[in-house]
Amino acid sequence: MALDKQTITSELGRVGLPDGGDLVSRDMIRALTIDGGTVRFVIEAPDAATAARMEPIRAAAVDIVRAIDGVTDVSAVLTAHSAPKTAPAGAGDAPPSLKVGRHPTPQAGPVRVAGVDRILAIGSGKGGVGKSTVSSNLAVALARQGRRVGLLDADIYGPSQPRMMGVNKRPGSPDGKRIIPLQAHGVTMMSIGLMVDPAKAVVWRGPMLMGALQQMLGQVEWGELDVLIIDLPPGTGDVQLTLAQKTELTGAVIVSTPQDVALLDARKAMDMFRTLKTPILGLVENMSTFHCPHCGEETQIFGHGGVAHEAEALGLPFLGALPIDLQTRVSGDAGVPVAAGEGPVADAYAALARRFIDGGMA
Ligand SMILES: Nc1ncnc2c1ncn2[C@@H]1O[C@H](COP(=O)(O)OP(=O)(O)OP(=O)(O)O)[C@@H](O)[C@H]1O
Predict the structure, then answer these.
(1) Structural domain includes residue 91
(2) Is 175 found in the same domain as 42?
(3) Does any domain span residue 88?
(4) pTM (2 decimals)?
(5) What CATH number did the domain enclosing 72 receive?
(6) Does the C-beta of 234 come closer than 6 Å to ligand 1?
(7) Is residue 287 in contact with ligand 1, taking CB distance under 6 Å?
(8) Is the confidence metric ipTM above 0.95 for this complex?
(9) Same-domain check for residues 69 and 123
(10) Which atom of ligand 1 is nearest to the CA of 330?
């Protein structure tokens, strides 16, 4: 019999906590995925101090799931999140201004974005590994599966989503306060690149970036979304820091190519998210195998499987591999993500999206 989430959740509900309740009743299980006999999940403690005491609980959870018929492998990651569950009173009340990049309005701590169920930050250590490509295609693939998806291009230094999603209109504002996002391929989208000249944004530092991000999240009329995907700049800079500190992120997904040098940088990005107490929900390998369209031969241009191994070594979920593919690049440049069409790469993105939905991440 195929494993199902309900069976696993009900077993995890037997893992009690010293201060009362259990892992399920206390809502600590995140990103539960089942892949054949392999079960992966994240245990999210309310804060770092609690997480530090929870290793025996994590081990008990692994044992209890491993004992389920059909389970061959279990990976459970312990993370901590210090964010409050609700937006503090008054958050978002400050008079907004459409001048993007102003100084931020004071904000007590991480806040939710009204109407948005989950926020995923898509990060990478290195630039050029395909983080924006994966963000846009994943967004489109999720929308094709009926999810309500938002895409925020927060790559302030090199916004590429307008080009990849085929939009270049400046978003409108009926009252000079609210910003109306654009729609493309079933996705609600917004890019800092549509509001400001990236050449100017390059010199922005902490407070200016914080103000701009606060506006993108607070003033944009996102509507009701199942998931908002945020395409981050590469590396570990001010945008990541600001976002993790000011917004209640569901978690981060790391995109890397398979070769060691990219993985080295990906590790730095993961270290940063761990320090910021943002749960890392998993890793995606981009530019994996190349399938020759002429002879059908497979070539591992950047190697293959490096990200899956890294995920395994770190006990993190491996979410999927996407091939290196000419059509992906051409479609991205043409503003129609490959996931919007048909074919093996669109299928790979559909499978990735399914994984996110099944894992409760979208
Ligand atoms: N799987 C793929 N196959 C072929 N080309 C790809 C693939 N993924 C991305 N590309 C191409 O590689 C280039 C860089 O991709 P992209 O802009 O998504 O990377 P990035 O990590 O977001 O970079 P940066 O952070 O510097 O913006 C683009 O031209 C894109 O079309």
Answers:
(1) no
(2) no
(3) no
(4) 0.74
(5) 3.30.300.130
(6) yes
(7) yes
(8) yes
(9) no
(10) 31
Domain count, the chain: 2
Name the residue of 124, 132, 138, 325 to mutate for ligand 1: max ligand atoms within 8 A of Cβ: 132
3-state secondary structure of 134: helix
Q: Which two tokens stand for residue 343?
A: 């074919």
Spacing, Cα 344 to ligand 1 middle (Å): 18
What tokens were used for 330? Answer: 């051409």
pLDDT for 359? 87
327, two tokens: 């059509």
Contact 78, 43 (CB under 8 A): yes
pLDDT of 200-230, one tens digit each?
666 666 677 777 888 888 889 999 999 999 9
In a shared domain, residues 169 and 58: no
pLDDT band at 53 (very low <50, low <70, confident <90, very high): confident
pLDDT digits (tens, 9 = 90+) for 138-151: 999 999 999 999 99
Strand-pair partners of 76: 41
Instruction: Label residue 197 exposed, middle or buried (CB < 10 Å: 0-12, 13-18, 19+).
Output: exposed
Q: What is the amino acid identity at position 87? A: A
